[in-house]
Design goal:
Layout (H helix, E strand, L loop, with lengths): L2 E9 L5 H9 L17 E7 L2 E7 L9 H13 L5 E7 L8 H9 L4 E6 L6 H14 L4 E4 L11 H8 L17 H16 L9 E9 L3 E10 L2 H8 L4 H18 L2 E10 L7 H6 L4
Parallel strand pairs: 1-3, 1-4, 4-5, 5-6, 8-9
Antiparallel strand pairs: 2-3, 7-8
Helix pairs in contact: 6-8
């Protein structure tokens, strides 16, 4: 008997969705930073056992869109609410803000199992945790609730057996040796963007998109040329930094991560170009993969 299905991870920005995906996959597929809106795309992580295939879907955090890029990001979330066999709704135990009505309403109506993961319990105490679990039970009564720490790996080993019990009998949807739906260039782009999120402040990281124009793999080395697009000329100067020091730092950090990811030596060239107001331009967004 083989089980297979789609398990969609949803929640607010910074709840820990990407950290959880990486923890469950045992592999860094999604970039992770402390900044909100780190995840922009929908990423599939394909977990395989001999009699099981779980297609995890990591989505951008649910937010109220302020410009077209964010609207496109929310389209990925809406898509994910259509096609799941099980939902993992991840919530931050330390988050005191009112939850997204859009999400709680949807999850209450959806006719598939919902597992609420109360995350970051390593930053909480027993009283706060009990209060959060009672609150979420009232919000989505049908859901099962599990306290976890995705970062510390606490209780995350209980998730896979639980999902296995909930998923339907199906043949695998993907080849058993495939672990994601994204091409190599996507992970290059995301790795560079993660380093930009970590190294720059304020609006700069949110004004950046990365496109890899060359990915040439040889036996022991991969040659990569990637373009960092910004919205304004002044941002280009900030990305490059004094005597090119800032972009050199980004390049070094990205190269180190990519060498681990691909298990090969990496030769990485970074270029910076201006694409004015791309976050508000329908055609640019489409070209960057935001349908």
């Amino acid at each position: 008997m083989h089980k297979a299905g789609f398990v969609n991870i949803v929640g607010k920005p910074n709840a820990g969705k990407s950290t959880l995906l990486n923890q469950l996959m045992g592999e860094k597929l999604a970039i992770v930073t402390q900044k909100a809106q780190t995840t922009r795309h929908r990423i599939f992580g394909i977990y395989n056992e001999p009699d099981l295939q779980i297609v995890f879907s990591d989505t951008p955090g649910v937010l109220d869109p302020k410009y077209q890029l964010q609207e496109k990001m929310m389209d990925f979330v809406k898509d994910s609410l259509q096609d799941a066999d099980v939902f993992l709704f991840i919530v931050d135990v330390t988050d005191k803000e009112i939850p997204s009505e859009f999400l709680t309403e949807k999850l209450n109506k959806i006719p598939v199992p919902v597992l609420i993961l109360v995350n970051k319990i390593d930053k909480s105490n027993q009283e706060e945790l009990e209060k959060a679990m009672l609150f979420w039970h009232q919000q989505i009564p049908k859901a099962e609730i599990l306290p976890i720490s995705a970062l510390e790996g606490f209780n995350t080993d209980a998730i896979l057996p639980k999902l296995k019990s909930l998923l339907p009998e199906n043949p695998p949807y993907y080849d058993k040796d495939q672990y994601t739906d994204k091409p190599e260039r996507f992970f290059v782009n995301e790795t560079i963007r993660e380093k930009i999120l970590l190294n720059y402040e304020k609006e700069i990281p949110y004004s950046v998109e990365v496109v890899t124009e060359l990915f040439k793999e040889k036996e022991s080395i991969i040659f990569i040329d990637s373009i960092i697009y910004v919205e304004r000329e002044s941002q280009k100067g900030i990305i490059i930094g004094h005597k090119g020091e800032a972009i050199k730092r980004v390049g070094t950090q990205a190269r180190e991560d990519l060498e681990k990811f691909f298990a090969k030596k990496i030769h990485l060239n970074l270029f910076v170009k201006v694409k004015k107001d791309w976050r508000k331009n329908e055609r640019d967004l489409k070209n960057f993969g935001y349908r």
